[in-house]
Amino acid sequence: MGAVLTGEENDWDEDAFYETGRVEIQKIINEIDEIAPELPRESALDFGCGLGRLTFSLAKHFNCVTGVDISEKMLEQAKANRNVPSNLSFILNTRSDLRQLENDQFDLSLTLIVLQHMPRKYMKAYLSEFIRITRPGGIIVFQIPHRTAHRFWKDKPLRSDSPSLGTLCYRASARFLRWFPRRLEHAFFTSDLWFRYRYAQFKRSGNPVMEMNSWKRTSLEKFLEKHGASIVRCRRDPEIHAGLQSHVYLVQKLERPKQAIS
Known about the structure:
8 helices, single chain, 7 strands, Rossmann fold
Protein backbone atom coordinates (compact mmCIF):
# COMPACT_ATOMS: atom_id res chain seq x y z
CA MET A 1 0.00 0.00 0.00
CA GLY A 2 2.71 2.42 1.00
CA ALA A 3 4.54 1.83 -2.26
CA VAL A 4 1.75 3.62 -4.14
CA LEU A 5 2.32 6.73 -2.06
CA THR A 6 5.97 6.93 -1.08
CA GLY A 7 7.75 3.73 -1.97
CA GLU A 8 8.14 2.89 1.72
CA GLU A 9 6.26 -0.11 3.06
CA ASN A 10 5.58 1.37 6.52
CA ASP A 11 4.99 4.99 5.56
CA TRP A 12 1.40 5.39 4.36
CA ASP A 13 -1.89 7.02 5.18
CA GLU A 14 -5.05 5.04 4.46
CA ASP A 15 -7.17 8.03 3.45
CA ALA A 16 -4.47 9.32 1.11
CA PHE A 17 -4.05 5.83 -0.34
CA TYR A 18 -7.72 5.52 -1.29
CA GLU A 19 -7.83 9.13 -2.43
CA THR A 20 -5.28 8.30 -5.15
CA GLY A 21 -7.71 5.63 -6.35
CA ARG A 22 -10.64 8.04 -6.34
CA VAL A 23 -8.69 10.54 -8.46
CA GLU A 24 -7.60 7.86 -10.95
CA ILE A 25 -11.08 6.39 -11.29
CA GLN A 26 -12.64 9.81 -11.81
CA LYS A 27 -10.14 10.50 -14.58
CA ILE A 28 -11.09 7.22 -16.27
CA ILE A 29 -14.82 7.86 -15.87
CA ASN A 30 -14.40 11.30 -17.45
CA GLU A 31 -12.60 9.72 -20.39
CA ILE A 32 -15.31 7.08 -20.79
CA ASP A 33 -17.95 9.83 -20.77
CA GLU A 34 -16.14 11.39 -23.72
CA ILE A 35 -15.47 8.30 -25.84
CA ALA A 36 -18.41 6.05 -24.89
CA PRO A 37 -21.14 8.15 -23.21
CA GLU A 38 -23.75 5.43 -23.76
CA LEU A 39 -21.74 2.77 -21.93
CA PRO A 40 -24.02 0.96 -19.43
CA ARG A 41 -22.97 1.27 -15.78
CA GLU A 42 -24.16 -2.16 -14.72
CA SER A 43 -21.00 -4.15 -13.97
CA ALA A 44 -17.24 -3.56 -13.76
CA LEU A 45 -14.12 -5.58 -13.01
CA ASP A 46 -10.95 -4.50 -11.22
CA PHE A 47 -8.21 -7.04 -11.89
CA GLY A 48 -5.34 -7.03 -9.39
CA CYS A 49 -7.54 -5.10 -6.97
CA GLY A 50 -5.34 -5.62 -3.90
CA LEU A 51 -6.79 -3.66 -0.98
CA GLY A 52 -9.41 -2.03 -3.21
CA ARG A 53 -7.62 1.24 -3.94
CA LEU A 54 -9.44 1.56 -7.26
CA THR A 55 -12.25 -0.89 -6.58
CA PHE A 56 -13.91 1.09 -3.79
CA SER A 57 -14.20 4.18 -5.98
CA LEU A 58 -15.26 2.15 -9.02
CA ALA A 59 -18.24 0.89 -6.99
CA LYS A 60 -19.60 4.44 -6.86
CA HIS A 61 -20.02 4.46 -10.64
CA PHE A 62 -21.32 0.93 -11.36
CA ASN A 63 -24.17 -1.11 -9.92
CA CYS A 64 -22.02 -4.19 -9.39
CA VAL A 65 -18.23 -4.36 -9.12
CA THR A 66 -15.97 -7.40 -8.88
CA GLY A 67 -12.43 -7.25 -7.54
CA VAL A 68 -10.03 -10.03 -8.50
CA ASP A 69 -6.64 -10.66 -6.93
CA ILE A 70 -4.06 -13.42 -6.48
CA SER A 71 -3.47 -12.61 -2.80
CA GLU A 72 -5.94 -14.07 -0.30
CA LYS A 73 -4.45 -11.87 2.43
CA MET A 74 -5.04 -8.71 0.42
CA LEU A 75 -8.63 -9.70 -0.29
CA GLU A 76 -9.31 -10.44 3.38
CA GLN A 77 -8.01 -7.02 4.34
CA ALA A 78 -10.14 -5.38 1.66
CA LYS A 79 -13.27 -7.19 2.86
CA ALA A 80 -12.54 -6.15 6.44
CA ASN A 81 -12.26 -2.46 5.55
CA ARG A 82 -14.95 -0.41 7.27
CA ASN A 83 -15.63 1.48 4.03
CA VAL A 84 -16.10 -1.51 1.72
CA PRO A 85 -19.10 -0.80 -0.57
CA SER A 86 -22.08 -3.15 -0.41
CA ASN A 87 -22.17 -3.61 -4.20
CA LEU A 88 -18.62 -4.96 -4.27
CA SER A 89 -17.59 -8.62 -4.34
CA PHE A 90 -14.15 -10.23 -4.38
CA ILE A 91 -12.75 -13.29 -6.14
CA LEU A 92 -9.47 -15.07 -5.43
CA ASN A 93 -7.82 -16.12 -8.68
CA THR A 94 -4.47 -17.92 -8.82
CA ARG A 95 -4.77 -19.16 -12.40
CA SER A 96 -3.35 -17.69 -15.58
CA ASP A 97 -6.91 -17.31 -16.91
CA LEU A 98 -10.24 -15.97 -15.67
CA ARG A 99 -12.40 -19.02 -16.28
CA GLN A 100 -14.36 -18.20 -13.12
CA LEU A 101 -15.89 -15.30 -15.03
CA GLU A 102 -18.40 -15.59 -17.86
CA ASN A 103 -18.19 -14.35 -21.42
CA ASP A 104 -19.51 -10.81 -22.01
CA GLN A 105 -20.01 -10.26 -18.28
CA PHE A 106 -18.68 -6.73 -17.71
CA ASP A 107 -19.30 -3.29 -19.17
CA LEU A 108 -15.86 -2.20 -17.97
CA SER A 109 -12.75 -4.29 -17.30
CA LEU A 110 -9.95 -2.42 -15.56
CA THR A 111 -6.39 -3.21 -14.52
CA LEU A 112 -3.67 -0.69 -13.64
CA ILE A 113 -0.02 -1.20 -12.60
CA VAL A 114 -0.54 -4.98 -12.67
CA LEU A 115 0.32 -6.38 -16.11
CA GLN A 116 3.73 -4.71 -16.09
CA HIS A 117 4.88 -7.14 -13.39
CA MET A 118 4.07 -10.21 -15.50
CA PRO A 119 6.05 -11.96 -18.27
CA ARG A 120 4.70 -11.21 -21.74
CA LYS A 121 2.90 -14.54 -22.12
CA TYR A 122 0.77 -13.77 -19.05
CA MET A 123 0.10 -10.22 -20.25
CA LYS A 124 -1.30 -11.73 -23.45
CA ALA A 125 -3.25 -14.43 -21.63
CA TYR A 126 -4.99 -12.00 -19.29
CA LEU A 127 -5.60 -9.35 -21.92
CA SER A 128 -7.33 -11.90 -24.15
CA GLU A 129 -9.42 -12.87 -21.11
CA PHE A 130 -10.38 -9.24 -20.48
CA ILE A 131 -11.64 -9.05 -24.05
CA ARG A 132 -13.59 -12.29 -23.61
CA ILE A 133 -15.37 -11.24 -20.40
CA THR A 134 -16.16 -7.71 -21.59
CA ARG A 135 -19.45 -7.16 -23.36
CA PRO A 136 -19.39 -6.09 -27.03
CA GLY A 137 -19.13 -2.31 -27.05
CA GLY A 138 -17.67 -2.39 -23.53
CA ILE A 139 -14.43 -0.73 -22.46
CA ILE A 140 -11.18 -2.31 -21.30
CA VAL A 141 -8.75 -0.06 -19.46
CA PHE A 142 -5.21 -1.25 -18.85
CA GLN A 143 -1.71 0.12 -18.37
CA ILE A 144 1.38 -1.14 -20.18
CA PRO A 145 4.96 0.16 -20.27
CA HIS A 146 6.84 0.64 -23.54
CA ARG A 147 10.56 0.95 -24.08
CA THR A 148 11.64 4.53 -24.67
CA ALA A 149 13.37 5.48 -27.90
CA HIS A 150 16.61 7.42 -27.69
CA ARG A 151 17.39 10.22 -30.12
CA PHE A 152 21.11 10.78 -30.50
CA TRP A 153 22.30 14.34 -31.17
CA LYS A 154 18.76 15.67 -30.92
CA ASP A 155 20.12 19.02 -29.71
CA LYS A 156 22.82 19.13 -32.39
CA PRO A 157 21.22 19.02 -35.84
CA LEU A 158 23.54 18.43 -38.78
CA ARG A 159 22.85 21.86 -40.24
CA SER A 160 23.01 23.80 -36.96
CA ASP A 161 25.90 25.99 -38.14
CA SER A 162 25.14 26.05 -41.90
CA PRO A 163 28.11 23.84 -42.87
CA SER A 164 29.49 23.45 -46.35
CA LEU A 165 28.48 20.41 -48.40
CA GLY A 166 31.79 18.69 -47.69
CA THR A 167 31.52 19.33 -43.94
CA LEU A 168 27.92 18.16 -43.95
CA CYS A 169 28.80 14.88 -45.69
CA TYR A 170 31.74 14.28 -43.36
CA ARG A 171 29.61 15.03 -40.29
CA ALA A 172 26.81 12.74 -41.45
CA SER A 173 29.23 9.88 -42.15
CA ALA A 174 31.01 10.29 -38.80
CA ARG A 175 27.73 10.38 -36.91
CA PHE A 176 26.50 7.25 -38.63
CA LEU A 177 29.68 5.36 -37.69
CA ARG A 178 29.22 6.44 -34.08
CA TRP A 179 25.43 5.99 -34.12
CA PHE A 180 25.43 2.33 -35.13
CA PRO A 181 27.30 0.89 -32.09
CA ARG A 182 25.46 3.30 -29.78
CA ARG A 183 22.14 2.15 -31.20
CA LEU A 184 23.05 -1.50 -30.67
CA GLU A 185 24.14 -0.75 -27.10
CA HIS A 186 20.91 1.14 -26.37
CA ALA A 187 18.77 -1.62 -27.90
CA PHE A 188 20.46 -4.25 -25.73
CA PHE A 189 20.30 -2.36 -22.45
CA THR A 190 16.61 -1.56 -22.93
CA SER A 191 15.66 -5.05 -24.12
CA ASP A 192 13.47 -7.54 -22.28
CA LEU A 193 16.44 -9.90 -22.20
CA TRP A 194 18.56 -7.41 -20.25
CA PHE A 195 15.74 -6.59 -17.82
CA ARG A 196 15.13 -10.29 -17.16
CA TYR A 197 18.86 -10.80 -16.56
CA ARG A 198 19.01 -7.89 -14.10
CA TYR A 199 15.86 -9.10 -12.35
CA ALA A 200 17.40 -12.58 -11.94
CA GLN A 201 20.60 -11.03 -10.58
CA PHE A 202 18.75 -9.01 -7.94
CA LYS A 203 16.59 -11.97 -7.03
CA ARG A 204 19.61 -14.26 -6.52
CA SER A 205 21.31 -11.64 -4.35
CA GLY A 206 18.33 -11.53 -2.03
CA ASN A 207 17.58 -7.86 -2.68
CA PRO A 208 13.91 -6.88 -2.85
CA VAL A 209 12.98 -6.20 -6.47
CA MET A 210 9.77 -5.90 -8.45
CA GLU A 211 9.85 -7.35 -11.97
CA MET A 212 9.07 -4.86 -14.73
CA ASN A 213 8.10 -5.88 -18.26
CA SER A 214 7.04 -4.04 -21.39
CA TRP A 215 5.20 -4.66 -24.64
CA LYS A 216 6.02 -3.05 -27.96
CA ARG A 217 3.13 -0.83 -29.03
CA THR A 218 2.91 -2.08 -32.61
CA SER A 219 2.76 -5.68 -31.37
CA LEU A 220 0.11 -4.74 -28.80
CA GLU A 221 -2.03 -3.07 -31.47
CA LYS A 222 -1.89 -6.16 -33.67
CA PHE A 223 -2.78 -8.39 -30.73
CA LEU A 224 -5.85 -6.30 -29.90
CA GLU A 225 -7.01 -6.24 -33.49
CA LYS A 226 -6.72 -10.02 -33.82
CA HIS A 227 -8.72 -10.51 -30.63
CA GLY A 228 -11.57 -8.20 -31.55
CA ALA A 229 -10.74 -4.94 -29.80
CA SER A 230 -9.74 -1.45 -30.88
CA ILE A 231 -7.78 1.30 -29.13
CA VAL A 232 -9.93 4.40 -28.67
CA ARG A 233 -7.59 6.39 -26.44
CA CYS A 234 -4.04 6.19 -25.14
CA ARG A 235 -2.44 8.55 -22.65
CA ARG A 236 1.04 8.64 -21.25
CA ASP A 237 1.64 8.35 -17.52
CA PRO A 238 4.83 9.51 -15.78
CA GLU A 239 7.87 7.40 -16.58
CA ILE A 240 8.02 4.44 -14.20
CA HIS A 241 11.50 3.06 -14.78
CA ALA A 242 14.68 3.97 -16.58
CA GLY A 243 14.10 3.15 -20.23
CA LEU A 244 10.33 2.69 -19.81
CA GLN A 245 7.29 4.88 -20.38
CA SER A 246 3.90 3.98 -18.95
CA HIS A 247 0.77 4.28 -21.09
CA VAL A 248 -2.88 3.83 -20.14
CA TYR A 249 -5.05 2.37 -22.90
CA LEU A 250 -8.80 2.61 -23.27
CA VAL A 251 -9.87 -0.16 -25.62
CA GLN A 252 -13.33 -1.01 -26.92
CA LYS A 253 -14.47 -4.52 -27.65
CA LEU A 254 -15.90 -4.69 -31.15
CA GLU A 255 -19.55 -5.54 -31.61
CA ARG A 256 -18.57 -8.33 -34.01
CA PRO A 257 -15.04 -9.30 -33.00
CA LYS A 258 -12.73 -11.00 -35.44
CA GLN A 259 -11.77 -14.58 -34.73
CA ALA A 260 -8.93 -14.61 -32.22
CA ILE A 261 -5.56 -15.77 -33.43
CA SER A 262 -3.04 -17.06 -30.92
